[in-house]
């Protein structure tokens, strides 16, 4: 098992940082570029393991994809001209790849078997397969089409009006992508609006999106044309360093080219509520995704409540927000976040268990956590559970832990942030890292 021991408690983090491209947007750029007919050029692509799985799958479907670092060029014959894959379509650890591909493949002209690694194979898929079956999709697997591997036989689909029981951009996106090839108008309604990257990008590719309140609709039969896509820096990756800047006196970091999509900026709202020094220096991006420069600096932190409509806007950042709360005065309550239990691992149980090892005053609830602070943290050995966000949270904890932290199964961080430790060392002086 790969291990890494780190100790940054005698260091300050200062400087500028450009985090890797947004994972959610990178996935969707490759997917829509492969569905579209013609050439799509992507800049700022995240070359992490998850997004590379998406590229591999479309290559198996006959799409020509060239990659040079963070630049990707897609030459697609269009979805109607995809070829039958010779082997299984392997999504690795990527839930976004698996769930969105279910929606795409359901209305395609191919039959395929979608698989994943040991972690992804335990994650529920029926939240996607059930509404797709209402559209006429042929998705088969055991038990009850809930777990990978699944066999998808492309078929004729009918539009549906679907009310989401739980806010999930992956489920919403899968239904909308299936709706591109369905007869009629497909509509998805949410109680709480989830991230809208798919809707924004569909419009970039020439698809007309209808938005009425919390309902989004797409007409079947839309023709997508290749285009140019700029992927901003991933605010979910930046969040770990934002917390790093906020939890220790003297720390400050300026983030360049970071995504500022309003459905994703919940981390900034929480940092501000808790008292951290936040400044949005500029904002750009008239077409597609907004992005800009953000500065985060230390300030005295106060506990808060993180709940309700805020949760979908920071669901992936909650592990590191729990760490942030250990350094805040008073009680922080995270609730309405049961979705955390079906991520790469049960993040509620995992975060609680690992932070307790460091001496945090944290308790697990059915749909979140309660954290009392401020609490001094010790060192120790933490386990990532093969979850990149748990691994990065453990690394950031070393900034305030009095003793070194050893992380087990650290390679999973490459899924979303291959240069994470390189950036951590870059911002830190002096550093003490043994890999």
Structure, explained:
- The chain has 435 residues and is an alpha/beta fold.
- It folds into two domains: 3-21 and 232-434, Enolpyruvate transferase domain (UDP-n-acetylglucosamine1-carboxyvinyl-transferase, Chain); 23-230, Alpha-beta prism (UDP-n-acetylglucosamine1-carboxyvinyl-transferase, Chain).
- It is built from twelve helices and 27 strands.
- The strands form seven sheets. It has a five-stranded mixed sheet.
- The longest helix has 13 residues, at 23-35.
- The chain is globular and about 60 Å long.
- It starts with a strand and ends with a strand.
Summary of the model, kept short:
This protein is of the alpha/beta class. The chain has helices at residues 23-35, 49-60, 95-106, 126-134, 169-179, 197-204, 235-246, 266-273, 318-326, 347-357, 388-397, 420-426, and strands spanning 3-6, 12-17, 37-43, 64-68, 71-77, 89-90, 111-115, 138-140, 150-153, 157-158, 161-163, 182-183, 185-189, 209-212, 215-219, 228-230, 252-259, 277-284, 291-297, 305-306, 330-334, 361-365, 368-373, 380-383, 405-408, 428-429, 433-434.
């Amino acid at each position: 098992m790969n291990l890494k021991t780190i100790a940054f408690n005698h260091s300050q983090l200062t400087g500028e940082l450009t985090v890797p491209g947004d994972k959610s947007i990178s996935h969707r750029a490759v997917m829509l570029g492969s569905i579209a007919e013609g050439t799509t050029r992507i800049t700022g692509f995240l070359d992490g393991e998850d997004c590379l799985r998406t590229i591999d799958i479309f290559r198996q479907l006959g799409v020509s994809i060239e990659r040079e670092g963070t630049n990707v060029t897609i030459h697609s014959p269009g979805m109607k001209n995809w070829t039958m894959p010779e082997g299984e379509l392997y999504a690795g650890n990527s839930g976004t790849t698996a769930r969105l591909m279910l929606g795409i493949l359901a209305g395609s002209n191919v039959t395929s078997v979608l698989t994943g690694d040991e972690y992804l194979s335990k994650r529920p898929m029926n939240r996607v397969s059930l509404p797709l079956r209402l559209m006429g999709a042929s998705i088969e697997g055991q038990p009850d089409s809930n777990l990978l591997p699944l066999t998808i036989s492309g078929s004729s689909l009918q539009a549906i009006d679907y009310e989401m029981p739980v806010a999930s951009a992956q489920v919403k996106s899968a239904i909308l992508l299936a709706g591109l090839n369905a007869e009629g108008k497909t509509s998805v309604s949410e109680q709480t609006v989830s991230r809208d990257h798919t809707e924004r990008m569909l419009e970039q590719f020439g698809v007309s999106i209808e938005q009425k309140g919390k309902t989004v609709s797409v007409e079947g039969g839309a023709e997508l044309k290749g285009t140019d896509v700029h992927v901003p820096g991933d605010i979910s990756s930046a969040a770990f360093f934002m917390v790093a800047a906020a939890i220790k006196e003297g720390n400050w970091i300026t983030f360049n080219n970071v995504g500022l999509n309003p459905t994703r900026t919940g981390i900034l709202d929480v940092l501000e509520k808790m008292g951290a020094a936040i400044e949005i220096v500029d904002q750009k991006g008239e077409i597609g995704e907004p992005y800009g420069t953000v500065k985060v600096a230390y300030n005295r932190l106060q506990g808060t409540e993180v709940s309700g409509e805020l949760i979908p806007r920071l669901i992936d950042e909650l592990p590191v927000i729990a760490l942030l709360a250990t350094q805040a005065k008073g009680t922080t309550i995270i609730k309405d976040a049961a979705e955390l239990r079906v991520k790469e691992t049960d993040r509620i149980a995992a975060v609680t268990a690992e932070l307790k090892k460091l001496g945090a005053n944290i308790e697990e609830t059915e749909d979140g956590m309660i954290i009392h602070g401020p609490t001094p943290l010790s060192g120790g050995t933490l386990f990532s559970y093969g979850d990149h966000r748990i691994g990065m949270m453990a690394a950031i904890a070393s900034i305030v832990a009095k003793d070194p932290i050893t992380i087990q199964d650290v390679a999973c961080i490459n899924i979303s942030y291959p240069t994470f430790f390189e950036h951590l060392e870059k911002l830190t002086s002096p550093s003490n890292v043994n890999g």
